[in-house]
Structures are given as C-alpha cells and as structure tokens.
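ARCHIVE CARD
Drawer: 12
Card no.: 0347
Subject: one protein chain, sequence and derived structure
Cross-reference: see card 0346
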Amino acid sequence: MPRVKLVLDSTADVPEEWLNKYDIAMIPLHITWPDGKTEDDTRERESVVNYWRTLEEAKEFPKSSQPSPAEFGELYKSIKSEGYDEIVVLALSTAMSGTYNSALIAARDKNIPVHVIDTRKASAATTLIAKRARELLDLGMSTEEMKKSVSDEIVEGKVHAIFYVSNFDFLVKGGRVSKFQGLVGGLLNINVCIYITHDTGEMIPFKRIRGERKAQRTIIDKISMEIPAGSEVDVMMVHAENKEGIDALAEKLKDYYDIAAFDETMMGKVISTHVGPGTAGFGLYWRE
C-alpha cells in the first residue's frame, strides 16, 4: 500500500492534533500589510489571537497571497525525501484563490505523483474533506479512486460550509464587498449569513439579520433545508473570537443531527481577514 501524504493550505482551519492523526502537511498563504510588513498564515493559537486584535484596530487591512509554485515544489521535494510515494493536495476553492493553480504547476515538474483537488470549499469544510480523503485511503482505495470519490461528494453536496459574519465592515475592508453589496448595500453592524456553493465554490450571502441569535437560527434553518433531520454527520465548528457563538450553534446541531464526529477549531489569519473577529459557523460532512 503506497504511503500518501495529504497537503492542506493554511486556509483549511485544521485542529493541530489532526496533522499527525491524518498525516497532513500544511503550506501557508502569505499576508502583506499596507506598510510592507509580511507574515505567514500560521496556525499557532497565540499568533492568531494577536492577529485578531491587530485586525480589530487596523484602519487598513492586509492583502493575502497564495503560495508560489516554487514553495509547493519545495514541499513536494521534502515529502518525497521522507519516503512518501504520492501526494494529495486539497486546495482552497479556485473561486477564492490561485492556490490550486500554484499546486498544479509545481506538480508538473516533480518525480512523485501529485494529485491536486479543488475542494470548492474553505476553512473547516476543507478540513473535513481531508479527513474523508484519509478514511477512503485507509479503506484501501487507490489515490485516483479516492480523488474521484471525494470530488463527486463535493459536487453532490455532501460537504457544507456555512457561517455568519458579525461585522460587515470586515467584508468591506477585506475586499469582498463586490460580492455582497447587492444584498447589504451600505448597512453596517448587522449579521450576514454566508454559504459556500457546491458548484462554483463561491461565498454567497443568503440573509442579513439583526441580532446574533437570529443569525444562528438562520444558518441552522439553512442547513436543515440541505440535509434532513436525523442524518449522520461529521461536524467541525469554527470561529474567529466567538467561542460563545459556536457553542450555541453546536447545541442546535446536536438536537437536529446524529453527529458521528464532532470537533472545533479557530479561523486562521487569511480567512479572518475577510470575515473578521466575531464570525462563527461550521463545516459539515453528510455521511448518511
């Protein structure tokens, strides 16, 4: 059985312990502040929390950029040197980033098979896709079979990403306003409920709500329209400085679904830049 390494980019909000548990390597996106200062999208808790504080006080937000093909190439080389036979890259939706293209370009020049998958998702949903990929490999699927199965499940709507943003100002400053202004116009200080589509992998707003409890109810109502009550699901809660928000959402999900696996994580720097502290939501994989 070949040794297969999974690779996630840093917008996949993965719990640290999952890196060893599911044999995952991470490659960071990059952040550049208006003053020229740069940093990587790292997952260390203290670094991320400090980043949230900086964002809250910033007048201008930083820009993010994907890893270069050269960076992917170095990672592939390192993985091969560790004795792996194949690599699977599970990349942030191509509707949000050029990370997939960088991974694909780098794969052409390496003497190790590299399979690149457009997850059409982000954050906690991508993390659940990685878990599913490892499960299928452990069941004895070939890498090609796993890639097809995972890609089919994404298109079929087995994986969901849904959350609410508590401060629309972050969407404006983060450069996402063009995708949302048709819904919210110039209104600030409201909760915007957002869903990532299965077909295009875009973040789409579906409701604006005044009041956080109403926003929580709204995204639970949305997922209940997608997945029947009583279904067996895996859940990954995710937040940016809003633990209370995901706790409230988790209680509602537990009342509605048969949760086979449950975990929680925090949003990394790049995702937080676009949605802001106060965001809460979840990734969900529909098993049965």
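Annotation on reverse: The CA atoms of residues 90 and 130 lie 7 Å apart. The chain has eleven helices and 13 strands.
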